[in-house]
Amino acid sequence: MALLNGSAKTMAEDVYHPAPEIVQSAYIPDYDAVHNEALADLPAFWGSIAAENFEWYEQWHTVLDDSNPPFFKWYVGAKTNIVHNALDRHMKTAARNKAALIFEGEPGDTKIYTYQQLNYEVCKFASVLRALGVGKGDRVTIYMGRIPQLMMAMLACAKIGAIHSVVYGGFSTEALHSRIEDSASKVLITCDGAWLRGKTVDLKDIADEAVQRAGTIQNVVVVKRTGQEVQMVAGRDHWYHELMALPIADPKATTEVMDAEDPLFILYTSGTTGKPKAILHTHGGYMVGTATTHKWVFDIRPEDVWWCAADPGWITGHSYIVYAPLINGATSIMYEGAPTFPYPDRWWQIVAKYGVTILYTAPTAIRGFMRFGDSWPSRHDLSSLRLLGSVGEPINPEAWKWYHRVIGKEKCPIMDTWWQTETGNFMITPLPSVALKPGSATRGFPGVDLDVVDEDGHPVAPNEEGFLVIKRPWPAMLRTLYKDPDRYVEAYWSRYQEQGWYLPGDSAKKDEDGYIWVIGRIDDVIKVSGYRLGTAEIESALVSHSTVAESAVIGVPDELKGNVVHAFCILKQGVEPSEKLQMALRDHVGHEMGPIAKPAVVNLVDSLPKTRSGKIMRRVLRAQTLGQEVGDLSTLAD
Ligand code: PRX
User: Is 421 near ligand 1, meaning CB less than 6 Å away?
Assistant: First the structure.
């Protein structure tokens, strides 16, 4: 795995101290004091935060139940609904008339929803879902572009106690099919199409194929976005706007009373082997964790305009576009399209137009903007910005410094947040009051007990590489893998079973100041432009092509995307290798998985390096591709 951070030994001039006025006004001016207080009594810390900042229908009797690790429970006995805190309670305050969501469409159309208007739409759609027979515990798959109805669909599900499973709109047929089938969803919510770079992506067509393969879906709700021609299956498919015009779309929908530990959503993410993992999050702990991290790390104030430029289809969007900003009563931006369309200053135009105060994005986007030079952002007034954020992969110091200088005008601290689909919220992150080192996500959020250790669990020496571990539970942690508790235990808790530590699957270094430098994945997960892809899913897409007998996929470092996918395929007997076939295989992965999974290179080979037990040695392929030492080959079969 390449070390993207360069040397972990930082130099004195690479420390950025926050301005005194930022420290003074921060929610947490003294990180160490609060962190130590939290670690001294985690239940007391998370109990008082939950009591002071959120509404509960009924109080918990136990903050943390750790009697059956790793199946931890938080706020046991409490009743709530995350939508009660995200929407319902704002109807009683001045927030009702405030912009909750500012939507900017790729073609330039805009729409602003106040909290009142958003709640109205969510209530109506919640009633529609109930009328379609969706109830507590039912799964609903959502497959849409980045439009307000995506957020409304998620909130409507949560409101009625249904479990949403959002599949990123950039995924394609097989990825969608397997996720529908695994969750056994009975309703799919989708769009006719989505805008991307001035063209349309045929979401409904992809959805049709996936629904046909899956067979669990009884109703498909289709939002009209692009207006393109689509096939509507009688009895199964319904236009969203037609349902919303019927009397069944009752704006007086009640919010389901949920147990704090009831499932809120599942979100599929890539794992080391086999099919994607269905990460399960719950109403209570996830609500407390996401909203608190959002408020403290990004210093959320009533006057802020928050822009998390991720997609709601990933955890970043779930936590920090949909739930946390609404719970905190913030105003959010949602932009539908590509960052550089039609010109490389589209984002900067949006920042200036709406007076965005906080921008949260991924290193790959920053590197993409860097390529176009300083003149594009410099054309726009970015003076409203006061904080910046980064997520998804390690940010290289050059990108950090460009972001800081050109976008933040050297006055905006950068919050480099390390976390995962599994963790639900930021885990390693600065606070605005903390000194920054470009390329380091700094230290654990208050109460996050972590370390970098060796195989045996001993802390490694400063600046030595080791495994990142999290030693104690936190409220927004995943509770299990949906329908697969054994895999949950095996994937995250078996390596350090004795110690009872969570293994995120990342390697890292800790410097002499206790700052963490995340290096990258230790498993076969590939981060392409910050998107998390599993080798196993791409490989099975490749072997589903009629010409491929066997395949292996690796991640190769790339300056812009962080990593790109390289594939190695053994063709079936009698199939002639050709450049045309290589292209066809790339396109096939695009069709099955989605464009982000397309290999940059497809190598047609005669054999693959394997262990004697038949496991593909991807590390050998990686070393060969990068021209590095292959290392120990004693387990190689041939
Ligand atoms: O390898 C880490 C990387 O992204 C992984 C989690 O991916 P996902 O579940 O898709 O969630 C991404 C958004 C939260 C981690 O195991 N990662 C995420 N943020 C950072 C990071 N690596 C380094 N620095 C980060 N700030």
Answer: yes
Whole-number pLDDT of residue 7: 38
CB-neighbour burial class of residue 229 (10 A; exposed 0-12, middle 13-18, buried 19+): exposed
pLDDT of residue 13: 60
- Residue 524: the pLDDT is 85
Q: What is the predicted pLDDT for the residue at 271?
A: 76
Beta bridge partners of 359: 307, 388
Contacts of 46 (CB under 8 A, 6+ apart): 38, 63, 64, 74, 288, 447, 474, 475
Is pLDDT at 413 greater than 60 in this prediction?
yes
- Identify the residue whose tokens are 């009975």: 186
Distance 480 CA to ligand 1 centre (A): 19
Determine which residue's CA is closest to atom 7 belonging to ligand 1: 420
Dist. CA 556–CA 550, nearest whole Å = 20
Mutate which of 391, 426, 533 for ligand 1? The one with the most ligand atoms within 8 Å of its CB, which is 391
Query: Are the C-beta atoms of 304 and 358 separated by less than 8 Å?
Result: yes
Average pLDDT over residues 20-26: 95
Does residue 506's CB lie within 6 angstroms of at least one atom of ligand 1? Answer: yes
pTM here?
A: 0.95
What pLDDT shows up at residue 11? 47
Give the atom of ligand 1 at the shortest distance from the alpha carbon of 525.
1
Classify 33 in phi/psi space as left (phi over 0), alpha (psi -120 to 50) or beta.
alpha
Phi-psi region at 293: left, alpha or beta (left = phi > 0; alpha = psi -120 to 50): alpha
pLDDT for 638 equals 66
Q: How far is the CA of 437 from the centre of ligand 1 (A)?
A: 18
User: What is the DSSP track for 450-479?
Assistant: EEEE-TTSPBPPTT-EEEEEE-S--TTS--
Q: Determine if ligand 1 sits within 6 Å of the CB of residue 509.
A: no
Query: Ligand 1 pocket check: which of 277, 297, 506, 507 to mutate, most ligand atoms within 8 Å of Cβ?
Result: 506
269 lines ligand 1 (CB under 6 A): yes
Is the confidence at residue 270, as pLDDT, over 60? yes
268 CA to centre of ligand 1 in angstroms:
15
Angstrom distance (rounded) from CA 481 to CA 104: 35
| Alpha-carbon span 533 to 528, nearest angstrom | 7
Confidence grade of residue 10 (pLDDT, cut at 50, 70, 90)? very low
- The pLDDT-based confidence of 630 (bands split at 50, 70, 90) is confident
Ligand 1 midpoint to CA 527 (Å): 8
Backbone CA torsion sign across 54, 502, 36, 300: negative
Q: What is the DSSP string of 199-219?
A: EEE-HHHHHHHHHHHH----E
Kindly tell me if the per-residue pLDDT of 81 is higher than 60.
yes
Residue at token pair 């805190």: 85
Estimate the crossing angle of helix 579-592 against helix 173-183, to 10 degrees.
30
The CA distance from 525 to 428, in Å, is: 20
Rounded distance from Cα 606 to ligand 1 centre (Å): 35
State in Å: Cα 418 to ligand 1 middle: 6
From the CB of 394, is ligand 1 less than 6 Å away?
A: yes
| Helices and strands (H, E) in the chain, number of each type | 20, 30
Alpha carbon of residue 251 to chain centroid? 31
Residue 172 has pLDDT above 90, yes or no: yes
Which residue minimizes the CA distance to atom 21 of ligand 1? 393
